[in-house]
């Protein structure tokens, strides 16, 4: 569990430099892995940024419990992601107060960069999944879906 979270946080970094034109999302389930780890990768064509989410059960949760794409507006997702990521990064800076195994690395999410709908949709849903799975509350009301 500790390694999974640390890998997730390391890979859950957004390397951003431009406004993306096209986003590609793929979900890979590791075949033959007894734990059934999930990998969700989001990247643009020029690979100027990339998000990789590795967490057991996220792909299944996303397919079965998350609201469908276009349920939320892009502005809503960007606002929520900014609030969630800001609180996440605050917790990274306070390891004596928050579990170091959950908040190991900060997330580089900048509101002045247009990441596109798919990236924001998956980050938002991961934050909801994370909060419900690990009994955390980053900011405001957390849907229990």
Rg over CA atoms, rounded to whole Å, is 14 Å
Which whole number gives the mean pLDDT?
73
**Strand order, sheet with most strands:** 1-2-3
In the predicted model, the low-confidence regions spanning at least 5 consecutive residues are: 4-36
What's the β-strand tally?
3
**Helicity range of the residues?**
25-40%
Indicate the structural class.
Answer: alpha+beta
Number of domains: 1
Q: Helical element count?
A: 4
User: H/E element string?
Assistant: HEEEHHH
What is the terminal-to-terminal distance? 23 Å
Q: How many strands, which pairing sense, and closed or not: the largest β-sheet? A: 3 strands, antiparallel
Net shape: globular
Q: Approximately how much beta-strand content do the residues carry? A: 5-15%
């Amino acid at each position: 569990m500790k390694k999974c979270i640390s890998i997730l946080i390391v890979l859950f970094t957004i390397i951003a430099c431009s406004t993306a034109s096209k986003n590609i999302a793929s979900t890979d389930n590791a075949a033959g892995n007894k734990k059934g780890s999930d990998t969700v990768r989001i990247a643009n064509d020029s690979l100027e940024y990339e998000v990789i989410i590795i967490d057991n059960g996220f792909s299944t949760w996303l397919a079965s419990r998350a609201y469908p794409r276009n349920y939320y507006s892009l502005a809503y997702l960007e606002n929520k992601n900014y609030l969630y990521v800001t609180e996440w990064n605050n917790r990274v800076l306070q390891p004596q107060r928050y579990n170091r195994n959950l908040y190991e690395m900060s997330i580089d999410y900048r509101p002045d960069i247009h990441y596109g709908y798919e990236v924001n949709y998956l980050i938002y849903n991961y934050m909801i999944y994370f909060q419900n799975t690990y009994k955390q509350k980053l900011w405001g009301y957390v849907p229990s879906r």
